[in-house]
Structure formats: C-alpha cells, structure tokens
Design a protein that fits this description.
alpha+beta; 4-stranded antiparallel sheet; single chain; 170 residues; 4 strands
C-alpha cells in the first residue's frame, strides 16, 4: 500500500513538472507547443534543432509519466488480485476445516455404531448361552427351585441388556 502511495505521489509530481525541461543549463517550459524561458516566449529565438530536442525531452517526460501511471494501475490490479487470492485461500481453509470436522464426526459416529453393534451381538450371545444352559440344567433335573429362580433372573437381565443394546443400535 505504501508503494502505491509513493508511485501515486511521484506520478503527480511528474504531471506538475512535466512541462518544465532543463536544456543546456536553462529551464524551459513548454505550453501548447510554445517554449518559454522565465515566462518569456523564446520559441523563435531557439534553433529548430534545439526546439526539437526540447519537445523530444518533453515527450519523453510525458511518456515516463504515462508509464508510471500504467505501472501504478498494474500495481493496483496486482494488489486487488492478491487480496482476492487471500480471500479465496481463507475460504478454502475454512472449507477444509469444515470438511475435517465433518469427517471426524462421521468417524466418531461409525465407531459408536460399531461399538453398539458389538455390544448388541455380545448381549444376544450371552442371552442365548444362558437360555441354553438353563434348558440343559432343567432337562437334566439339576436345578433346585432357588437355582431356577436365579437362572430365570439371570436370563431376564440378559434379555433387558440385549433390548437396551438393540435400542442403542438405532
């Protein structure tokens, strides 16, 4: 930004002094094709060659001013492009962060789902094993009324656990 201001002021300075030219130790001012020295018209007193050199120097100075203005415009355009690129980069970074956040959330949900499935599978397996064992013991007649009550309580707890796991699975 500072560079822009410097170029702007230099260009403005050139515009103010564009008509003044130093030639052979004297300062000439060119206005509307006439050459002045200290406010006096000296166009006719100078040789045609000197007039051409002075006008050529003025034209070169004007070309320098135009070039400075073009450089200033290019600099402004480059700064705008840089700002635009920075905004785009910030937007892309935000988008990338959001995508990472969503990915982590999805991974976390997947882990939770897998754990819930695992818990459900384990609880179903324990329930089936307990029912099978109870049926075997009952069939062999090795259950006392107290043991039978304990086994039924155990089976009902496994049943509740599997229902809870199924609910968590959803």
């Amino acid at each position: 930004m500072r560079l822009l201001w410097i170029v702007l002021f230099l260009g403005f300075g050139f515009v103010l002094n564009a008509q003044e030219i130093s030639f052979k130790g004297a300062t000439y001012e060119v206005k509307k094709g006439k050459i002045f020295n200290n406010g006096v018209d000296v166009t006719e007193t100078l040789t045609a060659e000197d007039q051409e050199k002075i006008k050529l120097a003025v034209n070169e100075k004007m070309a320098d001013i135009e070039e400075a203005e073009k450089a200033e415009k290019r600099l402004e355009k480059a700064e705008k492009e840089q700002k635009k690129a920075e905004k785009e980069q910030k937007r892309a970074e935000k988008e990338q962060k959001r995508a990472k956040k969503q990915q982590k959330k999805a991974e976390k949900e997947l882990k939770r789902q897998q754990k819930a499935q695992s818990n459900y599978d384990k609880s179903i397996k324990k329930h089936k094993v307990a029912v099978k064992k109870y049926e075997q013991l009952k069939k062999k007649g090795k259950l006392s009324p107290i043991d039978e009550e304990k086994w039924l309580d155990k089976i009902s707890k496994y049943q509740e656990a599997s229902e809870k796991a199924k609910k968590d699975l959803r």
